[in-house]
Predict the structure.
Amino acid sequence: MNKVIDVKDLCKTYVVNKKQNNVLRNVNFSVEEGEMVAIMGPSGSGKSTLLYTVSGMDKMTAGNVTFCGKELESLSDNEMADVRLEDMGFIFQQMYMMKNLTILDNIILPAVKSKRNKGNRSAVEKKGRALMKKLGIGETADNDINEVSGGQLQRACICRSMINDPKVIFADEPTGALNRTSSDEVMEEMVKLNNEGTTVMLVTHDAKVAAKCGRVLYIVDGNIRGEYKLGRFERSETLRDRERQLNNWLMEMGW
Amino acid sequence: MFFRILGKDLKRKRVMNVLLLLFVILSATFASASINNMVSVYGGIDYFFDKAGMPDFITLTMNSDGVNPTEDIVRNSVSVTSYQREDLFFYNAKNLKKDGKVYVDFENPGIVTSVSGARLTYFNGDNEEITEISPGHVYLGGLLNDPEKVHPGDVITLELSGRSREFIVDGYVKDALFGSPFLGNPRMLMNDGDYDYFLSDETIRSASCGCAYYINTDDGKALKKELTAVKNALFGESISTIKITYLLDMLTAVLMMVVGICLILISFAMLSFTIKFTLNEDFREIGVMKAVGLRNSSIRGLYLIKYLCIACVGAVIGYACSIPFAKLLLESVSRRILLGNDNYELIGLISAAAVVAVIVAFCYSCTKGIKKLSPVDAVRNGETGERFKKKSVLKLSKSRLPENLFLALNDVLSKPRQYVSMVVTFTMCILLVTMLANTSNTLMSEKLIFLFGTTESDAYYNSTEKIMETMGSDDPDILDHIIEDIEKELKDNGMPGKVHVELMYTLPVEFGNEKMNVIMQQCKDTQASEYKYITGSAPMYANEIAFTPQIIDELGARIGDRVLIEINGEKREFIITATMSSFNQVGKIGRLHEAVDVNVNDASSAMAFQIDFDDDPDAEEIDARIGRMKDIFDTDKIYNAADFVNMSTGSAQTMSDAKDLVLLIALIIAALVTVLMERSFISKETPEIALMKAIGFKTRSICAQHTLRFVVLTVICTCIASVLTVPLTRLISDRVFAIMGAQSGFEYEIRPLEIFAIYPLAVAGVVIVSALLTSLYIKSVRADAMGNIE
Ligand SMILES: Nc1ncnc2c1ncn2[C@@H]1O[C@H](COP(=O)(O)OP(=O)(O)O)[C@@H](O)[C@H]1O
Ligand SMILES: [Mg+2]
């Protein structure tokens, strides 16, 4: 199997008021192609920071991240931008969208930007609408972002992250701002996406969400404290069981 | 608690607060400087004359054989209420040398006054009264006040009747009486000792001395009548006529006043923008404050105090900056005129205080919205009511535009209010420059040639000597001989042509009870019908006449009325058949039919000799011939039509200087506003920039997108300015020309390349470059900065 993400001795230090805050301390792990990995841990343990540094959204202090064969710290800003555009999608906890574009336009923005789709805007639009339909928000395409619900907006963010068929999708608590039903819908999409071959790495504090992932990393104080392999989630009847296993393990970890 | 929040706010949102402060400083500077300049210009010539102590009437006389002929007449006149006498002596341009050479040229005699003999108050370049001058130093006024010819510190020599003395030029004098270049008696102000040195010469005392009488009167008309008894009067005019000689300077001053109004508009546009902008920025915080239970009034109070603090600091700094800025704006106008007001500080402070008041008022009205917002509304998007409107105007999916241009265009179109102030500013910048350019181009164009009461000729040859010869002679044919000589000279040099000249006659005109002296223009070699008239029809017979509307109004007459004019001692009746426009005599002039037998020796002045070549040469050939004629006649004073207009209006250069200054200021304003605005946008849009980076936009393309917004803006501004420039030029310059005497009937010289391309492009170029350079700051925004609102 191919390693899409390989992290070696990753460190991240914030300096606030001259005080060093070592948020990530020598983190090592890797993710294989097609995996779905959940990162869990107490609040403030560095989950978001990990996701930001691994995805190149933020610079690392030390260490080494290889993303799809490219060493991130050796990339120029422009190369980094291309990687973000073509190879990855990122879903934020807050549903950041361009305020003065419609939902559809927000979604197709990366596709329009991509060289692959140059001069083929109607195809891009079609793809955007198709994605929206698939995620059940087809009717909101021409709405402004303040005219839809949070769940719809988060699904739109997923659409946006998927529009360029990325190899990896990162999601930072994608369900954090959603109610149970919306959350389930969103997770269903993520699982589907993963089943179609996209690698997914998400941060969550919801065991129900993590139970749908193949592997769970538990992070405490900037260290990976443990790892639990659940195996690929295929049949929904097994969910209860997976959840119980996971909860037991989490209890052991001090959750 | 209140001040803790305030202090934190000022520190945390440093960039936005600094920008706000800069805008306030800019606005306060503009407002203080402009309001002050408007007051200064409004006081105008009256202020100058008042400070200089100008009387109702001035007469300048020459002593004959050392005897002053005026004193008795003035002393015994019943219409004189008070008078003062200023002794002086005369000199000519050729008496004045720099580096051993004659360096200026003027026809009328110049006058020398001693400091202690001065009866007017004279001011130096810093608007201070000149009360003493060291021996060997002089101040120069009138035509001599010309930085192109002589600078303070230069040495000039005055040689008169064998006496010669070197002087160091201390500076220029603002001389209320002879300050205007239209009154050709430049004044030199010197130390008493130097003055006496010249006066101790017998020839100077008997042949070159004279006096100026500054007379106050209660009956101007009677005084004028009595003073006709003075034989050697060089000059006798009422204060109102002298005021008119400053018209051209005042016109530029008035245009600078228009500039001031525009600057005030710009500053308020900027203020309203900045306040709305920074407040919108804060809605997230406002939401949080509401959520924790602060009352509306205290949230509002917090912002009012914040803006009050910034406004006060900004207004103080702005006021300080306004003093040099105001001076700079009026520099080109105030060289000859004392412009000013006695309450500079007070008005400046009031304007600065007004800026503070406006800021607080804006803030008060902008924070009204706080009441309506629920905490969640405020937090959710950090935006006000705007967010309930449809935002996206264009559809990316339906658009064929490149995505950067699309995003830029969509941004401008979907948030038009954010850009209004910039559109106003840039449009105003372009308009200011193009309006001044239109006016000064027109004042230099041959389109105005008819306003000098001349036909359009190939060349114009100004020769005071030849005219003086005509006026000083008793030979009625002398002018014909002079013209024949010129024609012969031209023919001998292979450029045959016809020559004619317009003469002016001062004639008493009567209509009913009204009686006045009117300058009448006539040329025997042309036909009255060759000239332009506004209404009526050209005089066809010797007993028909045309006047400007100003004269007709003053007489109380109308077209078709009959007036009496005394010519050669005989009263004749004339029918008014037409009205015309003219700059000559500030529009107080008439035209006689060519057949009226006025005597050329009685002419009071003349226009240039006009040359029409027989072979209709093109413009290039005309200029070549003008060059040759300058050699043949040994003079510089031969012009083509456009140069003749330029020379005659005299103000075109001042105006064109003013235009260059305004262009510079406009470009600086455009650059400044752009930098501040773009920096504000980056601050405000940090989350969106970060988002674009996160989804893979390169810094370069986000910069391009931001810069493109300004491109879109400048295109919009150029369009608006192009539409408005001509009507606005008309609106303002019609009045300018009317003050100069021409009330109607002229066209503007619009140079499309300059007006619709060069100036808009200059402004657009500066805006776009500033935007681009500022947008590079986007590089420092990180992809994960979405949540960080500065
Ligand atoms: N931009 C930043 N500057 C300084 N410190 C930060 C920044 N972002 C996060 N931190 C700190 O890093 C630690 C981990 O934060 P984060 O990764 O967001 O935790 P979480 O696991 O809850 O997502 C926290 O202690 C936080 O204070
Ligand atoms: Mg987090």
Summary: Residues 403-446+648-790 of chain B form one domain. Residues A 14, 16, 21, 23, 41, 43-49 surround adenosine-5'-diphosphate (ligand 1) (CB under 6 Å). Chain B is about 50% helix and 15% strand. Confidence is low (pLDDT under 50) at residues 380-389 of chain B.
